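Why Fibronectin type-III domain-containing protein? Reviewers of the renewal asked for a concrete example.
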Amino acid sequence: MNIQWLNYSLGSYTGLNDHSAVSEHSLNYSISSLKLTDAGRYTCSFFVSALMSTNIIPSRANNEFTSIIVKIPNGENPSVAQLKPYYRVGDNIDLICSATYPSYITTNVNMQWLNSSNRTLHSYTGINNNTEHTISYIINNVSLSDAGQYTCQYNISSTNHSFVLPSDNLRTSVNVTVNGTIKSPKLIAISSSSLILSWSPPATHQSIPIIGYNYTCIGINVSYTMTGSVSNTSLSVTLLGLIPFRKYTCNVTAITRYGRGISANVNAVTDEAAPSKVTSLNVASVQSNTSFLIWWSLPNEANGIIANYTVTISHYDNNTVIHNLTTNNLAITVSTGLIEYIPYIISD
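Here is what the prediction returned.
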């Protein structure tokens, strides 16, 4: 009885030539410390041949097959480069993942970056040569919708061996946090000397608590700066002591334990107010001393748009008003109702 164990793909062989007169013969083949190279199809083959006579033809060989399927063992989880605690809208993010797997047969390293929906964002396959393999995924001009969990995974597969199963997917996940800008603030004039600055929290801050808000307001072409901080429950502040009819710009920023978010800006103009008095009021008599030419300069503070000027002429003795004249100019001539050598009071 001739019995053999054969593995054709790997060229291994063990055999038994049993001369005993028993009805059942057996041949065991043991594989210790199973390796990936032991995977494959194994054939048990036997035939009967005459012991002493060369004239007796051996029986045909009888074969039975079995397979040894080996699963590639798992390696270490992939390593992901450390991310910032949070990113701001418009930043660029480079997700970098690396893995090393020692292998003694030809294998492939298959790596992917996945989003929170398990959709593949980027993939890479390379021949495993026992060196570090790296895969990157870049998010340019990050937006709020890019916030979430990202997962790097890899497995090891055989390149050309149908009896070797790939390893499990080994994963490492990271969270990308994007701090949003607060919703557009409002700056509303409530008088000629005050404004109310109000805002709403960011659309999302990825569960990172807001601990407060910083604000800064400055005057345009006017010496004014106001900075301050308020708690996370305060969503408005009143600005006082402003100059009428001037433009002011403010920005508001949400603050977390990781720092400042992106500032949101707003502009507004305070209400108009009464102008200050005109400067350099002058008068001269003309035309035989019965007419006045009156002229003046602009007020130091217009406090708005000057529509016109009113000139009032009254008697010096009893303040009786003789004329209330309106003009858009910086001079006016008064030629009626005046008496020579009589004193008058002129106001503008």
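Residues 189 and 333 are 40 Å apart (CA to CA). This is the kind of structural detail the renewal will allow us to pursue systematically.
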